[in-house]
Specification:
The chain is an alpha/beta fold. It has a single domain, classed as Flavodoxin domain (Rossmann fold, 3-Layer(aba) Sandwich). It has 5 helices and 5 strands; from the N terminus they run βαβαβαβαβα. It has helices spanning 15-29, 71-77, 94-109, 130-143, 169-189; strands spanning 2-7, 33-38, 80-86, 118-125, 156-158. It has a 5-stranded parallel β-sheet with strand order 2-1-3-4-5, sandwiched between helices. It is globular, with a radius of gyration of 16 Å.
Length: 191
């Protein structure tokens, strides 16, 4: 089993990355293989609704930007997808949504390859906006027929400056609990 963890923050080494990495470390303790991808420094074009993904012989997007290279294959190879985003003006980052819009459309046009994978969202902000961002990411999982594990609270944490989220003990514990619930669900689905 494998989980793909994505930090949708344009800031390398920031709070979102810290939380996604914390979840991936917990998954590894459960014997689950993980892969981490940061969208920092990885520009991804938004979906243009060209519908070219409907007319290709394999699941792919034809926009051809380097930031998106290999992402379809990563999503297809994973049993679980963990996506984290900081809150930008009340929602997920543009990088995160560009990635999800494109992967989601390619999946919908190519046999719904995301169906019944496990999906989990993490949102982090300085003060507010986590709930909408958390819901926004979960909408992606739901429309793609993915299965969402819960935790002991919403998968959110507080922090602005790099590393500040490490002071949010409840947020970190919620993310760790999420990871263990994700592992449990993956193990049950793959039994």
């Amino acid at each position: 089993m494998k989980v793909l963890g994505i930090s949708g923050s344009p800031r390398a080494g920031g709070n979102t990355e810290l939380l996604v990495q914390a979840a991936l470390q917990e998954l590894q303790t459960e014997g689950i293989e993980t892969e981490f991808v940061s969208l920092a420094g990885r520009p991804i074009l938004p979906c243009t609704a060209c519908d070219d993904c409907s007319h290709v012989d394999r699941p792919m997007c034809t926009l051809g930007d380097e930031g998106f290279d290999g992402m379809i294959e990563r999503f297809m190879a994973a049993d679980g997808i963990l996506i984290g985003s900081p809150v930008y003006f009340g929602s997920a980052t543009p990088e995160t949504m560009a990635l999800l819009d494109r992967v989601g459309l390619v999946s919908l046009r190519n046999g719904r390859f995301l169906r019944r994978k496990v999906g989990a969202a993490i949102a982090v902000a300085r003060r507010a906006g986590q709930n909408f961002t958390f819901a926004q990411l979960n909408y992606f999982f739901l429309i793609n027929e993915m299965i969402i594990p819960g935790s002991t609270y919403w998968n959110i944490a507080f922090g602005r400056e790099k590393g500040e989220v490490a002071k949010d003990d409840e947020g970190l514990q919620t993310i760790k609990n999420l990871a263990h619930n994700m592992a449990f669900l993956l193990q049950k689905l793959n039994a």
